[in-house]
Amino acid sequence: MIKSSFDIIVCGSLHLDIMVDAPNLPRIDETAVGTKWGYKCGGKGGNQAVMSAKLGARTAMIGRVGQDDFGTRLFAHLDRAGVDRREVGVDPVAGSGMSVAIVETTGDYGAVIVSGSNLAINPQDAGAAFTRLGGAPILILQNEVPEAVNLAVAREAKGAGARVILNAAPARVLSQELIEFIDILVVNRVEAAMLSGRAIETPEDAIGALPALGQAHRDVIVTLGAGGLVVGARESTPHFIPATPVKVISTHGAGDCFIGALGLALAHGEALEAAAAHASRIAARFVSLSEDARETATLDV
């Protein structure tokens, strides 16, 4: 295992999320009337880094923000969580990434993102940043930055002996070159369906999709929300983990919470199934809290 100042390095996106509460998501040509709005600092990369840091992981971030007020807020958010941001650059031209999310009363949501400065990350510099940080046993990646960035950092991390987690969200076709560097692929039902070419609704569907998701070559986790999750360790019998029953306030950020908790558990030496079960319990606690309560709540279980 890599000896490093960090447990986890996250390379990925940073967005300022505008959150709108509404009775329902608007349909085409409909203007829905919201009840409340606010903002939170996010991006899948930022969320995962902050979550792992809040849970106690020594965490560093590789990314890029704009030279604007959103970027200033994103930096302050990373600082409050204790995330090392020395390798988060400031782009003088591109604005910071941002998103607008509409959260229904059921807790379900839809969102639109504008990637901005996240698309301006230099792949070679991002790869070198992993080494400049001294490496870490766990590297976490997502799909909100260009694949060339993920590829460069994954190559650097694998060369240093790190374990590479790819949260393949949002769903997009992955190059074979990148796939070869991935140790653990984490997808939800939508992403699993796109990558496998199979409909995914039930745990049985997820188990059936594991070969198409490359279980013969890597560990695969398929998350199913309230339906639990399926863990397919490399060349092993799949294992179903039921979800912890909770009253859902909002599912926004639940997947990122799961990834951050999973990375920490793996960095501390837990086996894949145990780490996934622990992360699932933390994510269940997360979705039972309001956006405001999440800022101060103790999530570890």
Give me the strand/helix succession: EEEHEHEEEHEHEHEHHEEEHHH
Domain unit count: 1
- The CATH architecture is 3-Layer(aba) Sandwich
Hey, roughly how much beta strand do the residues contain?
15-25%
The parts where pLDDT drops under 50 for at least 5 residues are none
CATH topology: UDP-N-acetylmuramoyl-L-alanine:D-glutamate ligase
Annotation, overall tally of beta strands: 13
Describe the structure.
By secondary structure, the chain is an alpha/beta fold. The chain is 33% helix and 25% strand. It has ten helices and 13 strands. It has helices spanning 44-54, 69-81, 123-132, 147-159, 176-179, 189-196, 203-209, 254-267, 272-287, 291-294; strands at 8-11, 15-21, 36-42, 59-66, 84-91, 97-103, 109-114, 138-142, 163-167, 184-188, 219-223, 229-232, 239-241. The strands form two sheets. A nine-stranded mixed sheet has the order 5-4-1-8-9-10-11-12-13, with helices on both faces.
What labels would you give this structure?
UDP-N-acetylmuramoyl-L-alanine:D-glutamate ligase, nine-stranded mixed sheet, 10 helices, alpha/beta, four-stranded mixed sheet, 301 residues
Question: Layout of helices and strands, plus pairs?
Answer:
Elements: E1 8-11, E2 15-21, E3 36-42, H1 44-54, E4 59-66, H2 69-81, E5 84-91, E6 97-103, E7 109-114, H3 123-132, E8 138-142, H4 147-159, E9 163-167, H5 176-179, E10 184-188, H6 189-196, H7 203-209, E11 219-223, E12 229-232, E13 239-241, H8 254-267, H9 272-287, H10 291-294
Parallel strand pairs: 1-4, 1-8, 2-6, 4-5, 8-9, 9-10, 10-11
Antiparallel strand pairs: 2-3, 6-7, 11-12, 12-13
